[in-house]
Specification:
The chain has 159 residues and is of the alpha+beta class. 27% of the residues lie in helices and 16% in strands. A hairpin with an 8-residue loop joins β3 and β4.
Length: 159
């Protein structure tokens, strides 16, 4: 796996988020068209099924690796779910599982925050909420973050 990733700094203030379960983004959601492009891209990744999340709120769509894919067993939240996209009203924010160093650098650049369970010390570092992309430029960064999560799960880049 490629171990080097640099992230541009996200512009503007952080969105408001909850400090409880469900861990949700409350402000700064992207337009429906941008969120739809994110979903389309995510579910076109090789070997990924679009399924109900096994761990998130009702309506969340999970990125689940096909059973036939070889994978890193430490890269999943539950089953073979390595990421999920939240439904309205939290449209476009996601939880993704990453290598701890990737999660840290993404959070430091302002693209997300540690999952509530990580901040409470109940889950190991590497699970983060990625903020909803507000425009096409941010969409490209969020796609790269999801690609890193995919690579963490499969050991290879998605394309």
């Amino acid at each position: 796996m490629n171990t080097e990733a640099t992230w541009p700094v996200r512009k503007g203030p952080r969105p408001e988020t909850t400090r409880r379960i469900p861990h949700s983004q409350l402000t700064q959601h992207g337009p429906d068209a941008v969120v739809a492009r994110l979903r389309d891209w995510c579910f076109a990744l090789p070997g990924v099924n679009n399924e109900h999340s096994g761990i998130s709120v009702p309506g969340a769509r999970a990125l689940v690796l096909h059973e036939g894919c070889s994978c890193n067993p430490d890269a999943f939240m539950v089953g073979r779910e390595f990421a999920h996209i939240h439904p309205h009203p939290d449209s476009g924010s996601m939880h993704v599982k990453l290598a701890a160093e990737d999660a840290r650098s993404i959070v430091e650049a302002g693209w997300g925050e540690d999952h509530f369970l990580v901040t409470m010390g109940r889950y190991p570092p590497g699970l983060i909420m990625v903020f909803s992309p507000r425009d096409d430029e941010e969409l490209e960064v969020v796609k790269k973050i999801v690609a890193r999560s995919y690579e963490h799960a499969t050991g290879k880049p998605p394309m």
